[in-house]
Automatic annotation (TrEMBL):
Ranges for domain MYND-type: 34-75
Organism from which the protein derives: Planoprotostelium fungivorum
PROSITE patterns listed in its UniProt record: ZF_MYND_1, ZF_MYND_2
Protein name per Swiss-Prot or TrEMBL: MYND-type domain-containing protein
Organism placement in taxonomy: Eukaryota, Amoebozoa, Evosea, Variosea, Cavosteliida
Superkingdom: Eukaryota
Keywords: Metal-binding, Zinc, Zinc-finger
C-alpha cells in the first residue's frame, strides 16, 4: 500500500574493490621526481623546485634548464591559477565567506585517486590505449562537484575538447596540453556545480599498466562506469 512516501528506486550495487583497482605507486604522487629525467632523489637529498610554480622538481640545474622550453607554458598556467586562488581568497575575506574550494578539492582528489583515474580511463576512452585512438590529447575531463558541505560530492563527469577549454585563453596552453598528453598525463578540471567559474586544475599521471589491462582483456570497460565512480566517491 502506498502511504504517500515518494518511491526511491534501489541503488545498484557494485563490487568496487574488483571494479576499481588500486593504483600502482607513481613516484610523482608521493615524493619528488625530476620533471625532466624522471629520476628520484637519494635519501636526504632534496630536489630543486621551480621558483615560479613551486610544483615541478629537478635533480639538477641542468635538468631544469633543459626542461624549461616544455615547462614554460605549464608553469604559466600554474602561476596564473595560484594567483586566481589568492585573489578569490582575498575576496572571500572581504565578504566574510572563506574561500576553501581549492583545499577541499585537493584533499578530495588525493583521497579518491583510484576512482578518479577509473573515471578518466572511461571518459577519455583510454581503454583503447594512450595513443591517437583515445581522447587523451584532444580533451580534458571535467568533474562537477556539489560543494554544499565540507565533503565534496561528485554530481557529474563530462569532457571538453581542447578548443572549448582553451577558448579565449593563452594559445601557449595548447602546447602545454599536448606536452602533458605525450607524457601520459591527463588534465582534469574540477568545478563547483553551483558556481561553475570556481575551478581547480589538476594533472593526473595515468597508470600505463592499468590501461594495458583493458587492452589485454584482463579488464573490461563497464557500461555503467559513471555510476560505479559515483558509488565509490560519494560514500558519505
Amino acid at each position: 500500500m502506498n502511504d504517500g512516501t515518494p518511491y526511491t528506486p534501489p541503488q545498484p550495487r557494485f563490487d568496487l574493490d574488483a571494479e576499481i583497482p588500486k593504483r600502482r605507486h607513481i613516484a610523482s604522487e608521493t615524493v619528488d621526481v625530476c620533471s625532466y629525467c624522471r629520476r628520484t632523489p637519494e635519501e636526504g637529498t632534496p630536489f630543486l623546485k621551480c621558483a615560479r610554480c613551486l610544483l615541478s622538481s629537478y635533480c639538477s640545474k641542468q635538468c631544469q634548464r633543459d626542461d624549461w622550453p616544455e615547462h614554460k607554458s605549464l608553469c604559466t598556467v600554474r602561476e596564473a591559477g595560484a594567483k586566481a586562488k589568492e585573489d578569490q581568497k582575498l575576496t572571500g575575506k572581504k565578504i566574510g565567506k572563506p574561500f576553501i574550494f581549492p583545499e577541499l578539492v585537493d584533499r578530495w582528489f588525493r583521497s579518491n585517486l583510484d576512482a578518479i583515474e577509473y573515471a578518466v580511463i572511461h571518459a577519455l576512452r583510454l581503454f583503447l590505449g594512450l595513443e591517437e585512438v583515445s581522447d587523451l590529447k584532444t580533451h580534458i575531463v571535467v568533474f562537477s562537484l556539489d560543494m554544499k558541505s565540507n565533503s565534496p560530492q561528485a554530481s557529474d563527469v563530462y569532457v571538453f575538447s581542447n578548443d572549448e577549454f582553451l577558448q579565449g585563453k593563452d594559445p601557449s596552453l595548447l602546447q602545454a596540453r599536448t606536452q602533458a598528453a605525450e607524457r601520459g598525463q591527463a588534465w582534469l578540471l574540477f568545478v563547483d556545480a553551483d558556481e561553475p567559474m570556481t575551478q581547480v586544475l589538476h594533472i593526473l599521471e595515468i597508470d600505463e599498466e592499468k590501461v594495458a589491462q583493458y587492452q589485454s582483456g584482463k579488464r573490461v570497460r563497464h557500461p555503467r562506469w559513471l555510476q560505479v565512480f559515483e558509488a565509490a566517491v560519494n560514500k558519505n
